[in-house]
Amino acid sequence: MPNIANDPNRKSWIEVPENSDFPIQNIPFGVFITKDDVVTIGTRIGNCAIDMGALQQLGYFEGIELTDDMFMQDTLNDFISDGKKTWRLVRNRLAELFDANNPKLRDNKSHREVVIFKVEDIEMLLPVQIGDYTDFYSSKEHATNVGKMFRDPENALLPNWLHLPVGYHGRSSTIVPSGVPVHRPLGQTMPADATSPIFGPSRLVDFELETAFITTDANVMGERISVDEAEDHIFGMVLFNDWSARDIQKWEYVPLGPFLAKNFASSISPWIVTMDALEPFRCASPKQEPTPLPYLQQTGNKAFDINLEVYIQPENGTESLVSKSNFKYMYWTMAQQLAHHTVNGCRVNSGDMMGSGTISGPTEDSFGSMLELTWGGKNPIKLNDGSERKFINDNDTVIIKGYCKNENVRIGFGECSSKLLPVIEK
Amino acid sequence: MPNIANDPNRKSWIEVPENSDFPIQNIPFGVFITKDDVVTIGTRIGNCAIDMGALQQLGYFEGIELTDDMFMQDTLNDFISDGKKTWRLVRNRLAELFDANNPKLRDNKSHREVVIFKVEDIEMLLPVQIGDYTDFYSSKEHATNVGKMFRDPENALLPNWLHLPVGYHGRSSTIVPSGVPVHRPLGQTMPADATSPIFGPSRLVDFELETAFITTDANVMGERISVDEAEDHIFGMVLFNDWSARDIQKWEYVPLGPFLAKNFASSISPWIVTMDALEPFRCASPKQEPTPLPYLQQTGNKAFDINLEVYIQPENGTESLVSKSNFKYMYWTMAQQLAHHTVNGCRVNSGDMMGSGTISGPTEDSFGSMLELTWGGKNPIKLNDGSERKFINDNDTVIIKGYCKNENVRIGFGECSSKLLPVIEK
């Protein structure tokens, strides 16, 4: 079925500001709550949020096989479970419905009034119930930087790193949408000069610039997904801030990996941008040397050219750009990550989320964490207001932005913004 | 409210065979499906499964504040969310209802016929929808054994081990109830004499003898649960086999912890034994030296005397006992684990599961994995049929049993049994 929603010549009868992340070629999916406390699945064009539950009740999805309440739910899990063909049918239908030349909804004022909201009048919720969340570690630059700082500068990459996309399990219960503030964590740390650990607020709270992808039901337990089939089971992507407490992490992570240093909070952008929308931005991924084992060998362009930016905004201040990176730098692709994750028969469900790992680029201004940008706190960053940061201060807001752009169209993610509040002392 | 369900003198009008794990003093909770495809929450006395959904419809829980369909659900999550007071009221009610001296249901044949099933006529399902699953590493003997084998025999415990209950996140999607077979995983391993990794079926599939506890909604994000309050948020316990592929684990686990070596499958016993039922079996936990930080300091007996056994049963053979251990050997208690898990503000939800980590005792026959029992495969175990095992063979069934016993009563878990099927080659 053709992906007609990507037609770069289409214009919408909804106004789309210049440089908007959400032209009619995007059509992302999310969940929001209206002022009247109605929760619905929706999409976004320009600065308008569109109530797909209302659209469905008004018959605008007729002809597409959907359960009656598909879009009147508080998560996208069931829709995602319906599979790629349905995602494409629905996205195509929305493109046609909001096409400048289609009068059907455009000229129906009473319908428009119940379907279209200003984005400032709604609140975005978590788009999926995340069953399991996995985080990978797939940027060679990031793994090298961390290896240089914490292990051996001469052998920064561990022996397995070039052979498999290293990953680990994270915690779903503390993943929150953009806009929800998070608290500095308490925890146990071992100061450099101490012989026993101390307890208190983490002193080294950091962001990690990541993206994440959302899967559909992909396999039954015991069976695997091939690298060639993997992309068919990916619904879309979000921006992801994997909040990290570096001092807690350093003390706890050997031998079983990061735990409390990560699971106090993670933040995602609320609109899931579909793989269909990202299709025009495919590009080559870095050459893999040595060649991976056959189950990880891929053909074609499986990377995506997504510009990524991180800003820090102090309380009552303006935002300062602290990193510019790109998703295309990732050594391991999403297809390889999903093939690896399931090669042992691990079941993947609709709504599962898999993070990329910190996305650091080749230059110092493209590193994806304060740990790397300040090289462990040695080289503080200066913000626009003249203040310095080694890590994130209380009441700072960290904002991740991401977008793809070519001569025809800009497809963006909006932002993943979250404020770090002080520790709750009790 | 008194915990009258524990009265050791109570007898049931349902016959309870000698040495049954399920006397009327147990009253565990589970979910099962009947021959007629009805899914319900239930309990067990002797060899009878009791349909609590039917009991509720017949009015037997009148006077207890419950939603109308509380027990007509396919998971215990909502019931667990109701909290400790409700759990106790329901368990007390069931004790009274099945008391030998209570004629109400005993003498109502038509009611009995729709409420009581033989256990061989039902199929046990997963009792909860597990949101997040965490596995700890809290047996000092196990951590020491592993440290001796893989790291430094002179410094087997890592520096953080005595200061905090080391834990990591696992995967919920592949946790299955007793009786569901699991497949040997495929994966990437690095042979000792090789310079590049190979791909194929794991050659070193192992069990891990564990228990796990199930939590209720315990806190909001950012807030913590004190060690003194922690037990109030634990609903009950199950037996747990944390299937492990040692060769995959060895190659993948540095630096972010075990991943595909664990997430192909984990098995649990299907009846959740409540903390109320386990109350008579409290005992002291090992002395902790050095004294942990204040947030981990506990008073009173927070360990439980639970006898644990592991059997291997070859295809068409009889079961051979390969390990006898006890939950009381655990260095870190469940209360400490939960306090540590939430000290950073990590939210815990109803139905979350936390594994103990491998429960190895002080003697060689009490080790909780083949890795330790055979000391890395050096000392194979002989089974009753004369065959030897270094690790688990295809078509072997691993059976974990667990029970508490004092002069008055035996409270057991039934079993966690799962067969290892060959790899699915495709």
UniProtKB/TrEMBL annotation, chains A, B:
Positions annotated to bind Mg(2+): 242, 262, 266
Highest taxon of the lineage: Bacteria
Assigned keywords, A-Z: Calcium, Hydrolase, Magnesium, Metal-binding, Phenylalanine catabolism, Tyrosine catabolism
One Gene Ontology term of the molecular function aspect: metal ion binding
Cofactor: Mg(2+); Ca(2+)
Enzyme class: hydrolase
Pathway: Amino-acid degradation; L-phenylalanine degradation; acetoacetate and fumarate from L-phenylalanine: step 6/6
Fumarylacetoacetase-like C-terminal domain boundaries: 134-402
Positions annotated as active site in the UniProt record: 142
A Pfam cross-reference name: FAA_hydrolase_N
Positions with a binding annotation for substrate: 137, 151, 249, 253, 358
UniProt record, GO biological process: homogentisate catabolic process; L-phenylalanine catabolic process; L-tyrosine catabolic process
Enzyme Commission no: 3.7.1.2
Residues that coordinate or bind Ca(2+): 135, 208, 210, 242
Occurrences of domain Fumarylacetoacetase N-terminal (ranges): 25-127
Family: Belongs to the FAH family.
Protein name, as recorded: fumarylacetoacetase
Organism: Flavobacterium croceum DSM 17960
